[in-house]
Amino acid sequence: MDDIVKEAQPEADERFDIARITAAVDALAEEHTGREDVFRAAVAKLLKAEMVEARATAQAVLLKDRHGRRCAERLCFVQDEIIRILFEAATRHLYYSPIPSGAERMAVVATGGYGRGLMAPESDIDLLFILPYKQTAWGEQVAEAILYCLWDMGLKVGHATRSVDESIRQARGDMTIRTAILETRFLTGDRPLYDELVTRFDKEVVQGTATEFVTAKLAEREERHRRGGQSRYLVEPNVKDGKGGLRDLHTLFWIAKYVYRVRDTDELLDRGVFDAQEYRTFRRCADFLWSVRCNLHFFAGRAEERLSFDMQREIAVRLGYTSHPGMQDVERFMKHYFLIAKEVGDLTAILCAKLENEQAKPAPVLSRVMARFRPSTVRRRVPDSDDFIVDNNRINLAAPDVFKHDPVNLIRIFRLAQKNNLAFHPDAMRTVTRSLKLINTELRADGEANRLFMEILTSNDAEVVLRRMNETGVLGHFIRAFGKIVSMMQFNMYHHYTVDEHLIRCIGFLQEIERGGSDEFIVASDLMRKTRPEHRAVLYIATLLHDIAKGRPEDHSIAGARVARRLCPRLGFNAADTELVAWLIEQHLTMSTVAQSRDLTDRKTIENFAAVVQSVEQMKLLTILTTADIRGVGPGVWNGWKAQLIRTLYYETEPVLTGGFSEFDRARRLAIAQAEFREAFTEWPEQELNSYVARHYPAYWLKVELPRKIRHARFVRASEQAGHKLAINVGFDEARGVTELTILAMDHPWLLSIIAGACASAGANIVDAQIYTTTDGRALDTIAITREYDRDEDEGRRATRIGEMIEDVLEGKLRLPEVVARRAAGRGKARPFVVEPEVTVNNQWSDRYTVIEVSGLDRPGLLYELTTSISKLNLNIASAHVATFGERARDVFYVTDLLGAQITAPTRQAAIRSALLHLLASEMAAA
Fold it and tell me: Of 349, 219, 216, whose CA–CA distance to 273 is shortest?
């Protein structure tokens, strides 16, 4: 159970002068004889000062040598010595027993993470005080003296005081205590007591229970991953508990220690658990993760385990990463992090394979639903191939040289597993990874290999199989452009996953769209059935490649189209389909941008979009790709409102592309939308319902999703019956993590600005806004703001404050600029992101209005500042389209001058652009 780490320890005096400190403690004991409390306080003060100095030295060395494991050893050594000094002080000066009885014995033992001999700067200390079966007050007094001093030093200490018998009994019944005792390490006191615990733990707890322990630990790991988000490619990972983090490495070692009875990581090599290369990987992963974790704790000044955006850049700098063309220093650091996380996953698979062979652990399958219908035979040939066998429902190699004999097998193994619903045997995957050098120019050009790859991409379970191809390195070697974006993160708040994981997830959502039946994808699923059959493969390859050129200096859409033009002929596409794939990649952001930031009732918007998409077939394909792309960004990004906007844009554009013909012309869609509302909302008498329907313009019926329309109707009626001039309804969207404020008020030229200012004054950041006016002059606006509180009740109170402020401003009781200015003065620390501000002013997107598009770093109060500035420029805002993409705000305003005309003078346009750029740039400078 003892030390895991066997590396040579640095010299003691390099870290902690034990002799000097012990002498100082003895001097304090002499000085404060008979005054125990004063002595204890003086010792705690002395040791705290020494500890602070030792930690400062450890941080300085870490910044210099960047070796996290050594830092963790150094900190652990200091902590060990502090506890030994305290034990000596307690037993020699406070509770000295000249002739100790058999009951006056104690072993002080490190357990849990501290027991591993590695300690992060802000980690807790876990101690076990082992006492004899017969106990006296002496043991409790010594333990209390040590603990009180540690607490007075400001340390977080987990502790237990038990006899050996009690420890064994609790370890049998509690897996957490069993794991803690598995990692015990003797610190000081009575060694025979500790040795008795170790011997009895091995004999009475561990023997014969390996399968139980392995099953419990792997289940614990799965639950931890489920809670933290299953993917190891989340862009703000948890270094300790996340998938591919330190806890996964600890789980590996716990299992190996329990099953193979190893004491040190070196023995994993001796027992054949890992080979030399895999063991080096184990050490390298641990070293890297410890470097990240120690730096994280030092920088945060607390036990921070999540590598959040505001931490990532600082840690990247501390670890010596630099920026390269197309990739920031922080993105290069995070790419390295995700590659390490992947290697931790590979090591887990290797150990599990060995355990399955020896412990008969249940084997997985590719699709558990299908497994019920297929009997499991232990070993048999895979249909259609003599090179592979079925080994306990998993594909394995019939001979060690199957890849050398025919390199196409490196692709074929994945297609056969997919076709026969087989999971992948870890031994086979291990061999695949070691055979990557066989994927050369000749194999990439091989017709059979490319045919098999396209079959994988367009068949069931493509997401699962592509992920395995990616994790083994085959996908990145076979499509080299894909290899460049493996584990690449984008330093922004919009994307939840690394680029490769996003692309693979998009394939999964595309298959979900194709299967149909999901309320999320009604329009896309309908269009998928109506596209030309030969374009199915076009859609799949465009989805896989749409972000393939991320991380390059040039626009990734244009560069990605270039990649597709080179790659698609190799994959069997003809010239026309290759060009179609390239077009889809080049335009893959267009539909999303137009739908969310343009006035879809403006004829010019629709004509411009029609000119881009050129044909109904291309628009169908782009709609499906856009849906899969937005859904693949992360949870809550795709929602009913965006789905409705995409649907509206599609059906508004269809008649333009067909010379007036559309399956659903505008009048018919309006009638259908109103009929759907009438059918779903039967609470009112017909006359009242007719009157309400007539109050909304066509744009409202076409752009708002049905559940929201029903909520609006109830809200409007209740507000008017109560006689409210201004009313606010509060709702919560858990998937998006936002609070929605629906506001009903008399329309007012400055209403949007007032709402935005009230939100800014309450510290609420607007992430999107849906703004509508009724035919009788009422404004019905829905504003989504980021949550500040966990509890809905607290969020509701904040929303009420915002409503009261809007009312006070409208009634002239409050001057908004002063309130907003006070809030801005107390604004918190700068965000870690940099977004280059952009302002465009043009008349090409509308015949009636000038369109101002503003893009920059989002912040509370931005919309208020923009609308105020636009009004000060003597412009009327006819409509606003507010959207955020992570930390980037993209707000579009349709404006006229005070006479209702477009802004045509170049000098006036330049003045507008200059004023708004100045507003955005001043905030960046302040940050």
Answer: 349
- Tell me the average pLDDT of the chain: 86
Name the DSSP letter for residue 532: -
> What is the chain's percent helix, strand, coil content, to nearest 5?
60, 10, 30
Question: For residue 129, what is the enclosing H or E element?
Answer: strand 125-131
For 265, other C-beta atoms within 10 Å of its C-beta total: 22
What is the number of other CB atoms lying within 10 angstroms of the CB of residue 641? 19
- Can you tell me the distance from the alpha carbon of 1 to that of 3, in angstroms, rounded to the nearest whole number? 7
**DSSP-assigned beta bridge partners for residue 739:** 732, 785
Amino acid at 828: G
Q: For residues 913 and 835, is the Cβ–Cβ distance under 8 A?
A: no
CB-count exposure of residue 409 (10 Å: 0-12, 13-18, 19+): buried
Q: In this structure, are residues 389 and 400 in contact, taking their beta carbons and an 8 Å threshold?
A: no
Based on its alpha-carbon atoms, the radius of gyration of the chain, rounded to whole angstroms, reads 33
Strand runs (DSSP E) across 256-299, as ranges? Answer: none
Strands 738-746 and 778-786: antiparallel
Strand partners, 395: 390, 424
Token pair in block for residue 638: 């795709």
Residues 6+ apart with CB under 8 A from 825: none
Structure token pair of residue 318:
């501390």
Q: CA 503: distance to chain centroid?
A: 15
Rounded CA-CA distance 193/265 in Å is: 25
| Contact (CB, 8 A) for 167 and 132 | no
Per-residue pLDDT tens for 744-791?
Answer: 988 877 788 888 888 888 777 787 788 888 998 888 988 888 777 778
For the chain, the residue count is: 927
In whole angstroms, what is the distance from residue 295 CA to residue 120 CA? 9
Task: Measure Cα distances from 685 to 41, 673, 692, 722 in Å.
Answer: 79, 19, 11, 19
The SS3 assignment for 856 reads strand
Q: Which residue, 783, 920, 885, 12, is CA-closest to 495?
A: 885
Do residues 819 and 757 lie in contact, with contact meaning Cβ atoms separated by under 8 Å? yes
Contact yes or no for 184/200 (Cβ under 8 A): no
- Dihedrals phi, psi of 180, to nearest 5 degrees: -60, -45
Between 806 and 886, name the one with better pLDDT.
Answer: 806
Number of helices (H), then strands (E), in the chain: 42, 16
CA distances from 665 to 265, 656, 672 (A): 70, 10, 10
Number of Cβ within a 10 Å radius of residue 728 = 21
Burial of 198: CB neighbours in 10 Å, binned 0-12, 13-18, 19+: middle
672 is written with which tokens? 């259908």
**Burial grade of 219 (CB within 10 A; 0-12, 13-18, 19 or more):** exposed
pTM score of the predicted model: 0.75
| Through-space distance between the first and last CA atoms of the chain, rounded to whole angstroms | 51
Tens digits of residue pLDDT in 161-206: 999 999 999 999 899 899 989 889 999 999 999 999 999 999 999 9
- Burial code (b: 16+ CB inside 10 Å, e: under 16) for 11-42 equals eeeebbeeeebeebbeebbeebeeeeeebbbb
Q: What is the b/e burial string over 804-837, where b = at least 16 CB atoms within 10 angstroms of the residue's CB?
A: ebbbbbbeeebebeebbeebbeeeeeeebbebeb
Q: Are 109 and 177 in contact (CB under 8 A)?
A: no
- The residues, ordered by sequence, that sit 6+ positions from 238 with a Cβ below 8 Å of its Cβ are 228, 245, 305, 306, 307
For 104, the 3-state DSSP assignment is coil
Amino acid residing at 517? G
Q: Could you give the angle at which helices 276-300 and 36-65 cross, rounded to 10 degrees? A: 120
Q: Report d(CA 166, CA 177) in Å as an integer.
A: 11
Angle among Cα 903, 905, 907 to the nearest 5 degrees reads: 115
